[in-house]
Amino acid sequence: MRAMTETLTGPYTLEREIKKSRFVANAAPVHTIEDANAFISAIIAAEPDATHHCWAWQVGPHCRCHDAGEPSGTAGRPILQMITAQKLDLVAIVVTRWFGGVKLGAGGLVRAYGGTAAECLREAPKEELIERIRLSFHCPFSLLSLMQARMQDWTGTESAPPEFDSTGAQIVLTLPAEQQEMITHRIQDLTSGQTTVAVVEED
């Protein structure tokens, strides 16, 4: 059985003081690498007086981390490891530090950044990350009202506004991937096999 992957339901902030240094972790769900970079830039811009803004993100198979001036490997990588350890995806986190005058040493920095990130991610509200796909099909005008009524009963399925042509409407549904076979059969049953259901490939 594949381990369940989760993401955050919204932004979350946690603050700790470690040997007079102030650490603030800001984490948020992101959908793309661009989202992650924008979130990190916003945090950095909001706290220009901070000593360091160390960060990491995980977006599907892609990940990145940054030490932001701390000794190599003492900040960004420990933060990223906490994302991985908690089986999270589509997440960005920035751990901001205000230096308090006491040096922590390499091991202390790893524990401070990693520990602050871990606590923030552990406490943040989460939800299961469900793989979703898009299906496209054509529905003739004679069946459109029936189809739209049935679609309202398909839990977890969202419909884009239909695109009309001379014979009916092209409909695109977004749904959990595990429901693909069931929904495809329902569409074909309702149209008596008159339509072809295709998966819409992501750009």
Please explain how this structure is put together.
Residues 19-121 form the Impact N-terminal domain. It comes from Acetobacter cerevisiae. InterPro entries: EFG_III/V, Impact, Impact_N, Impact_N_sf, Ribosomal_Su5_D2-typ_SF, UPF0029_Impact_CS. It is a single chain. This protein has 203 residues and is of the alpha+beta class. It folds into two domains: 6-128, Impact, N-terminal domain (Ribosomal Protein S5, domain 2, 2-Layer Sandwich); 132-199, Alpha-Beta Plaits (2-Layer Sandwich), CATH 3.30.70. It is 32% helix and 33% strand. The chain has five helices and twelve strands. It has helices spanning 33-46, 76-85, 105-123, 141-151, 180-190, and strands at residues 6-8, 12-18, 21-29, 52-59, 62-66, 91-98, 126-128, 132-140, 158-159, 163-164, 168-176, 198-199. A five-stranded antiparallel β-sheet has the order 2-3-6-4-5, sandwiched between helices. Strands 8, 9, 10, 11 and 12 form a five-stranded antiparallel β-sheet that branches. A hairpin with a 2-residue loop joins strand 2 (12-18) and strand 3 (21-29). Helix 2 (76-85) runs parallel beside helix 3. The longest helix is centred in the middle third of the chain and has 19 residues, at 105-123. The two termini are 30 Å apart.
